[in-house]
Amino acid sequence: MASQDQFGPIEYVAVEFPDGAITADGFEQLLEIVDNGTIRILDLEFVVKAADNSLRVVPASTFDLADFDLSQFDGAASGLLDAGDIAAVGEDIAAGSVAAVLVYEELTVLPVLDTWVRSGARVITEGHISVDELADALNETENNE
Length: 145
Known about the structure:
β2 (39-49) and β3 form a beta hairpin. The chain is built from four helices and four strands, in the order βαββαβαα. The protein has helices at 24-35, 83-92, 110-118, 131-143, and strands at residues 10-17, 39-49, 55-58, 98-106. Strands 1-4-2-3 form a four-stranded antiparallel beta sheet, with helices on both faces. It is α+β, with helices and mostly antiparallel strands. It has a domain at 10-108. The protein is 30% helix and 22% strand. This is DUF6325 family protein. It comes from Rhodococcus globerulus.
């Protein structure tokens, strides 16, 4: 597990549930990968966009799923998401929809980083490659073959 001075890569993803139709399936899997130490949830915010396009953040327990208790995720907030982040997500979802915004720490690479650091290496930078950047690079590689 990560110590206070070593963190794995931090990632985020926002997922829209049209018409607020949240299902348990993905949240069950999310809980599994948290429990098995693959990731640590830093933030999980639920953004509701009303018919008048206003936005509000609501607790996970707001959603009553017949087969899963989302309240397990209440309080998963580190403060990394701010009003600007919520507004940006809100611009991308339709009125009547709900978005789950997940910020997580990738823990699987921590043992590797820890080993390198213990042997004298130092992490000098971390970054994120977007899906669009990956697709562009793969297309460029394909075009050059």
